[in-house]
């Protein structure tokens, strides 16, 4: 029994590894700059956001680290957007393989999210170079970063599994998710500091409510632990009640559980529907 189980997971790992490798190669096939686009896209977006929102509209907290905080936020959001968008279309896009080859369906979605994770790792190297160049003082808070990234991947994977399953039966999900992602982007403190929300509303409760969103909680935690522990508000600093503090973490792992549950429930009929 144990030998069969071991062989099954070994086979699944081999399939996953090959899918990730193939997807990553195909993504930049025929492109002159190739994998460099993984770095250039967030950098170009950062430049536009910095000029428009920081220089012209003055969406800044006034600290010298805010440009780095902005770059980090854009890189993190790009990971979440890429993982969920690629995961959403993964099953439908691989329908021909599902009909021909027998292997665990979830590997297709995991492969899409791992590909996004590789892009994030490349972007984080760029962020670290900028941090070192700008003499950011790293603290012991960086030890929390592995937990932050595990939580972020759990959120992305759970969302991707849920969307992938729904998209097989409701093809409008792709368009609905595009609209929702636009809403979530501007409802999350990525291009503006959270302090600006309090300043404009004259009420700290709105900023605290925004921190209860899982993406906002995770992005703010990573910014706090990596770049600006003194100036980055987090759910752990702004909210004193532990029950409320844990809401975004609980939501993250509920979404992961829900994604796995829905995917398992409907995955057996994917090949028939496709």
Automatic annotation (TrEMBL):
<protein>
    <recommendedName>
        <fullName>Transport permease protein</fullName>
    </recommendedName>
</protein>
<comment type="similarity">
    <text>Belongs to the ABC-2 integral membrane protein family.</text>
</comment>
<keyword id="KW-0813">Transport</keyword>
<feature type="transmembrane region" description="Helical">
    <location>
        <begin position="106"/>
        <end position="130"/>
    </location>
</feature>
<feature type="domain" description="ABC transmembrane type-2">
    <location>
        <begin position="33"/>
        <end position="266"/>
    </location>
</feature>
<dbReference type="GO" id="GO:0015920">
    <property type="term" value="P:lipopolysaccharide transport"/>
</dbReference>
<dbReference type="Pfam" id="PF01061">
    <property type="entry name" value="ABC2_membrane"/>
</dbReference>
<dbReference type="InterPro" id="IPR013525">
    <property type="entry name" value="ABC2_TM"/>
</dbReference>
<dbReference type="InterPro" id="IPR047817">
    <property type="entry name" value="ABC2_TM_bact-type"/>
</dbReference>
<dbReference type="GO" id="GO:0005886">
    <property type="term" value="C:plasma membrane"/>
</dbReference>
<keyword id="KW-0997">Cell inner membrane</keyword>
<keyword id="KW-0472">Membrane</keyword>
<feature type="transmembrane region" description="Helical">
    <location>
        <begin position="31"/>
        <end position="53"/>
    </location>
</feature>
<keyword id="KW-1133">Transmembrane helix</keyword>
<feature type="transmembrane region" description="Helical">
    <location>
        <begin position="176"/>
        <end position="194"/>
    </location>
</feature>
<feature type="transmembrane region" description="Helical">
    <location>
        <begin position="150"/>
        <end position="169"/>
    </location>
</feature>
<feature type="transmembrane region" description="Helical">
    <location>
        <begin position="242"/>
        <end position="260"/>
    </location>
</feature>
<dbReference type="GO" id="GO:0140359">
    <property type="term" value="F:ABC-type transporter activity"/>
</dbReference>
<keyword id="KW-0812">Transmembrane</keyword>
<keyword id="KW-1003">Cell membrane</keyword>
<feature type="transmembrane region" description="Helical">
    <location>
        <begin position="65"/>
        <end position="85"/>
    </location>
</feature>
